[in-house]
Write a structure and sequence with these properties.
This protein has about 475 residues and is an alpha+beta fold. It folds into two domains: about 1-105, Beta Barrel (OB fold (Dihydrolipoamide Acetyltransferase, E2P)); about 130-170 and about 205-470, BirA Bifunctional Protein, domain 2 (2-Layer Sandwich). Helices cover about 30% and strands about 20% of the residues. It is built from 13 helices and 16 strands. The chain has helices spanning about 10-15, 60-65, 115-120, 130-150, 210-220, 255-275, 280-295, 305-315, 325-335, 355-365, 415-425, 435, 455-460; strands at about 20-30, 35-40, 45-50, 70-80, 85-95, 155, 160, 175, 205, 220-230, 245-250, 320, 370, 395-400, 405-410, 445-450. The longest helix is centred in the first third of the chain and has 23 residues, at about 130-150. The chain starts with 7 loop residues before the first helix and ends in a 20-residue tail after the last helix. The structure holds 4-amino-1,4-dioxobutan-2-aminium adenosine-5'-monophosphate and magnesium ion. The site of 4-amino-1,4-dioxobutan-2-aminium adenosine-5'-monophosphate has 22 residues, from strand 11, strand 15, strand 16 and helix 13.
């Protein structure tokens, strides 16, 4: 039954008419007991299935409701109606799955809010908006693999269960096979005795595959990871998830500048791919965003539409400057009353808040920005120390509307410097013996970065909330589905 099906996308792309075919999909609407708008998710567009009057008995006709799944056989003919070139003149309609109209949440007359759709994430795939978002997400994932594959990188699968905390931020979910009823074995001092646990040690879900990625880069030269990562930070924002996907390339013989060049080329490549492959989806999302923007007061509207923004990003160089230069700009703009920040920049060394990042990107430079050479105190232990003794060879890429989209650095390959920094930051060297080994056996300069996949999807689709670009989002107090 299923191999005779033609995807609606392929039907609509063809220019032939007058041939027999079969389509299957979900009814979007049924007008005048005659016109079915049918969608199978292969594209945002529907095919119009025309039912001749009197062709169906009344009982079958009643079962063609919004959300019902049907099979339609018939002839593809040129359409006389507006809005479509072809339509299917049905000779046979079969109901594959009924849909209870009274209870179907997408039956609502008004456009449901994104917040409401999040509560019915099992059904939101069927809306135009989420259809487009998740097809674009797919296109980006494919482009990521293609980009690295074509450059000769090895795709490395790093562990999801790990004993190390790569970022040293301690925001990890524990993994244990112990019962949680208080009967887990204890040490003499009352703490849990993880030696008796499944892995014989305390373990957690990974926050990053980087440290393992570095090990492989010391053999293959060019590797990347693309997998789920987990953070138990209690951030209820439009940019944080507890479970998100990260892409982490790691390249031997690269320095910070090579790293920036790779990241910029990479981001432009994947966006360009989505623009070529998913033009209609992006145009739909751009339209949707434009309507949303119209609801805002004039001075809060963004200056560029979605397509314009993406075009601009792929065709212009990212702005590159140091953290220190950024601080000067921020202080001056605050001083000149160009911008009043909620958090004032008090001095050199403080971490930037998202309002500062967004000011730099959206108001000052009006383009993606790469900030480099951050104070070592606000960055992870593995970043390469600069000669000034104060900064590290870090880079963050900030994107309009999103803020940080990439975090990366050149890595500290000098064993003595690395050990010194680990001690200062209380990172246990004995647990990371394997990481330190690479600094003893053929160490080399190397660099890498992490791109938050959902933040990229957010940027490309223009969706305001990160919870709407991953099928089933995990965030504080929510792990439904
Ligand atoms: O800046 P981060 O913490 O860097 C690392 O994890 C490094 N190990 C990467 C590397 O050098 N290989 O995270 C990298 C990116 C951020 O820039 C952001 O885009 C994303 O991951 N990210 C999140 N995305 C969604 N939800 C969260 N809670 C995120 N935390 C970080
Ligand atoms: Mg970061």
């Amino acid at each position: 039954m299923f191999n005779q099906r033609t995807r609606i996308k392929d039907l609509l792309a063809g220019d032939k008419a007058n041939y027999e075919t079969t389509v299957m999909g979900w009814v979007r609407s049924f007008r005048n007991n005659q016109f079915i708008a049918l969608n199978d998710g292969s594209t945002n567009a529907n095919i119009q299935v025309v039912v001749a009057l009197g062709m169906l008995d009344e009982a079958t006709q009643k079962r063609i409701t919004t959300g019902a799944c049907i099979k339609a056989v018939g002839e593809i003919i040129p359409s006389l109606g507006k809005g479509q070139k072809i339509e299917l003149k049905a000779t046979e309609i079969l109901i594959l799955g009924d849909c209870d109209t009274e209870k179907y949440p997408l039956q609502l007359k008004n456009r449901p809010s994104l917040e409401y759709l999040r509560e019915i994430a099992h059904l939101r795939f069927r809306t135009n908006t989420f259809g487009a978002v998740f097809r674009v997400r797919h296109a980006l994932a494919y482009a990521i693999h293609k980009f690295f594959n074509d450059k000769g990188f090895v795709y490395l699968h790093t562990p999801i269960i790990t004993a190390s905390d790569a970022e040293g931020a301690g925001e990890m979910f524990k993994v244990t096979a112990f019962p949680l009823d208080g009967t887990a074995p204890r040490n003499e001092d009352g703490s849990i005795n993880f030696k008796e646990d499944f892995f014989g040690r305390s373990t957690n879900l990974t926050v990053s595959g980087q440290l393992e990625g570095e090990l492989a880069a010391m053999a293959y030269s060019d590797i990347y990871t693309f997998g789920p990562t987990f953070r138990a930070e209690n951030s209820n924002t439009t940019r944080h998830l507890a479970e998100f996907w990260m892409i982490e390339p790691e390249v031997a013989f690269n320095d910070l500048e090579d790293n920036m060049n790779l990241a910029e080329e990479f981001i432009k490549y994947v966006i360009r791919h989505a623009m070529e492959q998913n033009k209609e989806d992006l145009e739909f999302l751009a339209q949707r965003l434009e309507e949303e923007e119209k609801q805002k007061p004039q001075n809060e509207r963004s200056e560029m539409g979605l397509m314009e923004k993406l075009d601009f990003v792929v065709n212009n160089d990212f702005e590159r400057l140091t953290y220190t230069e950024a601080i000067t700009i921020l202080k001056e703009s605050n001083h000149n009353k160009k911008k009043k920040f909620q958090y004032l920049i008090e001095g050199w060394g403080v971490d930037l808040q998202s309002e500062h990042e967004r000011y730099l990107v959206e108001k000052h430079f009006k383009k993606p920005v790469i900030l480099t050479d951050y104070p070592k105190e606000i960055k992870a232990f593995y970043m390469r120390q600069n000669d000034d003794g104060k900064t590290v060879a870090a880079m963050d890429i900030l994107a309009p509307g999103i803020g940080e989209i990439v975090g990366g650095s050149q890595r500290e390959e000098r064993l003595d410097k690395l050990l010194e920094r680990m001690e200062e930051m209380h990172i246990p060297a004995d647990e990371l013996w394997w990481y330190l080994d690479t600094r003893k056996f053929g160490a080399c300069p190397h660099a890498g970065f992490g791109l938050g996949f959902e933040r990229l999807v957010q940027f490309v689709t223009g969706m305001g909330n990160i919870r709407d670009v991953i099928p089933f989002p995990r965030y504080p107090k929510s792990a439904e589905f």
